[in-house]
Each structure stands twice: as C-alpha cells, then as structure tokens.
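User: I'm putting together notes for a lab meeting next week and I want to include a structural view of one of the chains we've been expressing. I don't have a solved structure, so I'd like a prediction I can at least talk through. The sequence is below, exactly as it appears in our construct file.
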Amino acid sequence: MLYLIGLGLDHDSISKRGLEIAKRCKRIYVENYTVDFPYALSVLEQMIGKKIKIADRKFVESMELIDEATRMDVVLLVYGSPLTATTHIALLAEAKKSKVKTAVIHNASVLDAVAGTGLQLYKFGKTASMPKWAKNFTPDSFIETIQHNFSMRAHSLILIDIGLKFKDALKQLEEASEKNNLSIKELVVCQALGTKRQRIIYSDIEHLREIRWIVAPFCFIIPSKMHFMEKEFLDNFKI
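Assistant: Thanks for the context. Below is the predicted structure for the 239-residue chain, given as structure tokens.
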C-alpha cells in the first residue's frame, strides 16, 4: 500500500494519524524537490523513530514507489499537503492503474496559510511558480498569470522555486515585469508560514530591495483590488 502523508508547515505539524501510519510502515521517503524545508529532516526521523530516505523528482516520477508498494507498505512524506503538486496526482493515478491501494493524509499548506495576510482566499486567482533562471533560461510565464489575475481583480500567489534566494527572486520579478510592461508597485512577502520563523511584510519594490534577512521558504503575493477590510489588515505588515 502507498501512503501520501502531508507534513504541514512545521516540524510538529504532522497529524496524529499520519504519524501513526509512518511508524508502522516498512519504508519511508520524503519528497525534497518542491520546497526548501524550514527544518532539518533529522527532526522527522526522531519523531517517527525510523530512517527516512530522500526521494528526488527523478525517483518519484520513475514510479519506483508503485513497484515497492506492491510488496510492502510505503510512505511518501510531503511538505504541506500531498496533492498540491501535480507529480503526486500522477503517482496516485499510476497506483490505480497498477491496482495498488493508496491513502492520502491531508494537511495545511501555503495555499491556505496565505490567509494570514488578511487577503481573502476566494479573491485569489491562478497560482504560478517562479523558476530559478539560468544564463539561457529565463521563463516568465508567471507574469502572464499575474496579468490574467489582474484582469479579474484577483490576487496572485507566486510560489518560489527551491534554491532561489530572495534578492534574486525579486530581481527576476522586476525584470520580467518590465519586459512585459506590467507595473507592480507593492508586494507581499511571506516567509516560513506556519512556523516560528514566520514573517509577513508588505512594502513597495524599492524598499524590498534593501532587505537581506528573508530566507527560504518564501513566496510572493501581488495584491489586486482590495476590500477595505483586506487593506486594513494587510497594512499591519507594512514596512
């Protein structure tokens, strides 16, 4: 059997059910390619009392987990909630084809934790990801998502790729915005939501350039037209 267990947002956020399942399963993996973990994985090993293997993208997409799950109970631990990544949906679909039983243990994720900004969840549009640019690789499709959301007066959540530092992510946002004639004046930055290191700041781009203390994991929110209650609450984080 294959279990997908959400870890939530902090080291002690795994559910009681998820922890019980992990402790009794023979093999445990943790997916490490969709987020920069805000805590050491050794903390999970101490909680579960078992050795945890790292599952990179290649391993998960190879569907080797499905093969193992035909012979034993296998766990894939996922930061946040298990089904926010399309890879994990594909994993469940393949398990169904192979007649492997599955169970999903949901948890909190950044998709609901951003409500802590005061911005209303039902007023968010499509979510986009910002990949880390390289010399000949500068994809900016996230700008199209922001523009589409603006057209609906919807807020935009931009998830930042693993390994991308704050100053570089901000620079990419500015360069892509300028290239696509999009004006972004103010930005919400959310750091390590749901943990003791959580920080939410709301400021103009120029001021954010001076900040050096934001660390992973973090995400951007580009607010669109706000209700007065949203604006009033968000202003508590203004710097």
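A couple of points you could mention at the meeting. The first strand starts at residue 2 and ends at 6. The radius of gyration is 19 Å.

User: Perfect, that's what I needed.
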